[in-house]
Amino acid sequence: MIKGVALDVDGVLTDGSFFWSEEGAETKSFHFADIMGISLARKAGFLFCLISGEESPLVDIFAAKIEIDDVYKGSKDKGEALRAFAKARHLDLEEICYMGDDVNDLPALEIAGLSAAPADAQDVVRRKVQLVVRHGGGRGAVRELLDLLIAKRGEAFGR
What we know:
By secondary structure, the protein is an alpha/beta fold.
């Protein structure tokens, strides 16, 4: 049974776009449906972490807003970050779902108990994962995944 959910940020929680102001400030766009999905899944008992290849302070701001303590930024080996999350939260890798969208996510996707990708993930990723959701990254993909996991958990508990 899945107990933990690890998410890539860019391309999963965002659509992969970022914007720079003339002053060099970076901004990203997140989807409120995904935020609500995380809130609902947390209430259902799921643990969360974010794994990003970027060092962006926006990841920290987002994590603080949605109350995710386990954040791995600047990750060059996302598989190792996933193992660290599993160890920190006393989970087996089989109990973790990882959602990613690009080749740097493959090491984590290959070891997760459930591997998932947004509809607009790179072809190589979509071919390797167990689940491709219908929505794109930053457009409700996370919410769709979490709704499925919550429903599956309810079935496991006879609800």
